[in-house]
Design brief:
With 155 residues, the protein is mainly beta. It is built from no helices and 13 strands. It has a seven-stranded antiparallel β-sheet, with no helix packed on it.
Length: 155
């Protein structure tokens, strides 16, 4: 089903800075406004609502450090703002909360092409929803904390 009329506009800004010979830092922010101007499906009128699963704000900050002797580290903190869940259930304006996830890694790269990395994704085990169709209905949880070690070889 396609919406009759809708509007969206926004802005995104990304900055990166070489803070030292071995350290890069970066940040980004995104802002988005969206609205269904004319959207009715059966008895459900979604006019005036934001697009589903679309955050009005998102932001990230992070770093990448390369010690120059094979050691490296990086980290990112990512914020995703509140957004409307799926419209499929006919529930008007059901919302998904904002969340912040932190990812870190540290590793070593040999000249032979082998790289060993220890990592933690969603370090603080933040619980968040990617999608929810309405109160008491199906939901999709975001990734839980994952801690691991990875060995790769490039040739």
């Amino acid at each position: 089903v396609n919406a009759g009329n809708s509007t969206s506009y926004g802005a995104e800004l990304e900055l990166s800075y070489a803070a030292g010979a071995n350290l890069d830092v970066f940040a980004s922010i995104g802002l988005l406004e969206s609205e269904f101007e004319d959207f009715t499906v059966g008895d459900n009128d979604y006019s005036g609502q934001a697009f589903p699963l679309t955050a009005r704000q998102n932001a990230a900050v992070g770093y990448r450090y390369n010690a120059g002797d094979g050691w490296f580290s990086s980290g990112t903190m990512t914020f995703t703002g509140a957004r409307t869940g799926s419209l499929g259930s006919g529930v008007s304006g059901f919302g998904l909360g904002s969340y912040t996830v932190v990812d870190l890694e540290v590793g070593y790269q040999w000249r032979s092409g082998a790289t060993l990395v220890a990592y933690a994704n969603n370090l603080f085990d933040t619980t968040y929803f990617l999608n929810e169709s309405g109160p008491g209905s199906a939901a999709s949880l975001g990734d839980r904390r994952e801690v691991g070690v990875q060995l790769t070889y490039s040739f």
